[in-house]
Please model this.
Amino acid sequence: MQITFIILGVLLLIVVFLVFRAKHQMKQIKDVKDSDKVKILSDQNFSAQTKAGTVLVDFWASWCMPCKLMVPVLNELAEETDGKVTIAKLNVDEARVTASKFKVRSIPTLILFKNGKEIHRFIGVKTKDYLLKELDRRTAYN
Model:
């Protein structure tokens, strides 16, 4: 019985250590500037920017650490898709009407639109390779 408590105690200490280490690493993340190829959306321009073509919209907030992890990924996607897919961002704190309209409950949420209609939704941090494969699979990307 005591061995069980010792093992559980050690496991708890390891989990606590890993959580604190992850928090420390997240605080060290530097802000990365958005690429010029990433469009910034608002409640006012959202419909106009998403009504034609294929648009991947990142719903994010400035205080969200996982959202900060997505910035370099979206910058690279914007460069690699070269206009075939528009990459855009919408700050949920500044564009609450649009975020509410699309029922965004957690961030980062990426929604893929084709001619103004949602065709797929990604929740959480995703890699560039994953997103490229999904864009290829879900759109006429090629």
About this structure: Strands lie at 38-41, 54-60, 86-91, 109-114, 117-123. The first strand starts at residue 38 and ends at 41. The mean pLDDT is 88. The chain has five helices and five strands.
